[in-house]
Amino acid sequence: EVDEFVGKKTDKSYRLLEEMLTKLLLELDSIETGGQDGVRQARKESVHRIQAILEKLERKGL
């Protein structure tokens, strides 16, 4: 949906996308790795991916 977004940061669709992505970050933050490197790495990669998507959304918002 971010790829298809055209609009302003004040648009409802922008705020909805931003909120959904932020909630995903919060969910990832709550994941306990239990000392498992694979889980920690997967969480880290997911956080970086979501942050990149948020940055893309920010650039697209006029």
UniProtKB/TrEMBL annotation:
GO CC annotations, alphabetized: cytosol; membrane; nucleus
SUPFAM superfamilies for this protein: BAG domain (SSF63491)
Pfam families, alphabetized: BAG (PF02179)
Sequence ranges assigned to domain BAG in this UniProt record: 1-61
Gene Ontology MF, one: adenyl-nucleotide exchange factor activity
Keyword Ribonucleoprotein: no
GO terms of biological process kind: protein stabilization
Entry-linked InterPro entries: BAG_chaperone_regulator, BAG_dom_sf, BAG_domain
Alphabetically ordered keywords of this record: Chaperone
PROSITE patterns, sorted: BAG
SMART domains in the cross-refs: BAG
PANTHER family referenced in this protein's UniProt entry, alphabetically: BAG FAMILY MOLECULAR CHAPERONE REGULATOR 4, BCL2-ASSOCIATED ATHANOGENE
Protein name: BAG4 regulator
Species annotation: Ceuthmochares aereus
Primary gene name: Bag4
